[in-house]
């Protein structure tokens, strides 16, 4: 994943955001890290939506063979970028351990469940999340198997820019602003829509039509 994106984020943020100059070194690193996270999320979510809904790669009338074994240069490239991001972000997390990534990462996903169960700290959860994501996406990348289902899951990356925006607003002291409230509502609906898409389209349409295709994948 190109390290120049971190440098670009630092340059743009210093020029256009007054809050950036008031941050600590660790906060600036997280600021830049979240900027790269947002770029990756927009990139992979856009391509995931394209492959799931608009591309002919995973349609019956354009290609023969099992759905689970189909891939293209573009789909492989997209997954390669995603693996590169997850690995690079894991490296950044370990490099700045335990400063990068807060408990809000868990709160966005689990909400009030944290009031009833003992959840892991946000940083540890982020490490586990990124590790599992990197392994799963890398499997689809290197084997060429299950790429459609991988893109279905990666559609949920549409929520990442809003989660990062919430951190930016909080860091800028705008936690009580209207923008912060609206952003929270957008996060909720983005999660709901992305998972409704996965459940409805992924399970009921693709899996019911091609329910036996995943069984042909390699057992690991």
TrEMBL record:
InterPro entries: TLC-dom, TLCD. The chain crosses the membrane at residues 35-54, 74-97, 131-158, 178-198. One of its GO terms (biological process) is lipid homeostasis. PROSITE patterns: TLC. Keywords: Membrane, Transmembrane, Transmembrane helix. It is a multi-pass membrane protein. Its main location: membrane. This is TLC domain-containing protein. It comes from Rhododendron williamsianum.
């Amino acid at each position: 994943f190109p390290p120049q994106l971190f440098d670009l984020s630092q340059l743009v943020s210093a020029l256009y955001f007054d809050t950036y100059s008031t941050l600590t070194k660790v906060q600036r690193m997280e600021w830049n890290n979240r900027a790269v996270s947002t770029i990756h999320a927009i990139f992979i979510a856009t391509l995931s939506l394209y492959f799931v809904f608009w591309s002919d790669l995973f349609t019956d009338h354009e290609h023969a063979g099992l759905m689970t074994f189909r891939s293209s240069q573009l789909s492989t490239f997209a997954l390669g970028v995603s693996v590169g991001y997850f690995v690079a972000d894991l490296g950044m997390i370990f490099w700045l351990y335990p400063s990068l990534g807060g408990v809000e990462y868990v709160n966005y996903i689990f909400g009030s469940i944290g009031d009833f169960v003992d959840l892991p700290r946000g940083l540890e959860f982020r490490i586990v999340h990124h590790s599992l994501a990197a392994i799963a996406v890398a499997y689809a990348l290197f084997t060429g198997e299950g790429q459609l289902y991988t893109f279905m899951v990666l559609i949920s990356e549409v929520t990442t820019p809003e989660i990062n925006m919430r951190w930016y607003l909080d860091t800028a002291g705008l936690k009580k602003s209207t923008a912060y409230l609206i952003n929270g509502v957008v996060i909720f609906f983005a999660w709901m829509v992305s998972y409704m898409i996965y459940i409805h389209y992924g399970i009921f349409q693709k899996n019911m039509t091609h329910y036996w295709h995943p069984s042909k994948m390699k057992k690991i």
